[in-house]
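Hi all, posting the design record for the shared folder.

TITLE: backbone redesign
STEP: 1 of 1
STRUCTURE INPUT:
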């Protein structure tokens, strides 16, 4: 499980150093994918394969499912971290997530999220307010 919020920066070549505590699980390869929240999801290769299997289970006759799968897979990019734990985020995904320099890298269960720092702070502030005002945990 990936946990925690980490502040990082994007270098001039579009690279970010992964948090040390995430590197071992991502060292064998990872997949970047667009998130619906305008951040980048980073999956270990095996977790990405599980996610794709889940999406394959949705009937192809469902137009929304086809569109989701197309955007998700077309935006996906495989990467292997270098010896320093750096990964290069493709320009298309950097533009999609509005990544410039200051980033927040979050653990999000079986994946990692990469956010523009100010976008994350706005999202987090609103989500924390909603979280604090829940009457009871939601049910799944």
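Okay, here is what came back for every position:
SEQUENCE:
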């Amino acid at each position: 499980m990936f946990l925690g919020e980490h502040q990082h920066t994007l270098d001039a070549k579009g690279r970010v150093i992964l948090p040390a505590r995430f590197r071992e699980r991502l060292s064998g390869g990872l997949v970047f994918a667009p998130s619906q929240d305008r951040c980048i999801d980073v999956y270990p290769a095996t977790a990405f394969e599980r996610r794709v299997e889940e999406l394959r289970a949705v009937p192809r006759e469902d137009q929304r499912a086809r569109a989701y799968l197309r955007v998700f897979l077309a935006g996906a990019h495989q990467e292997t971290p270098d010896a320093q734990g750096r990964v290069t985020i493709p320009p298309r995904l950097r533009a999609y997530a509005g990544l410039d320099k200051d980033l927040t890298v979050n653990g999000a269960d079986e994946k990692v999220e990469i956010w523009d720092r100010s976008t994350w702070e706005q999202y987090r502030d609103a989500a924390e307010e909603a979280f604090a005002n829940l009457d009871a945990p939601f049910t799944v």
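COMMENT: The chain has a mean pLDDT of 94.
Let me know if anyone wants the other runs.
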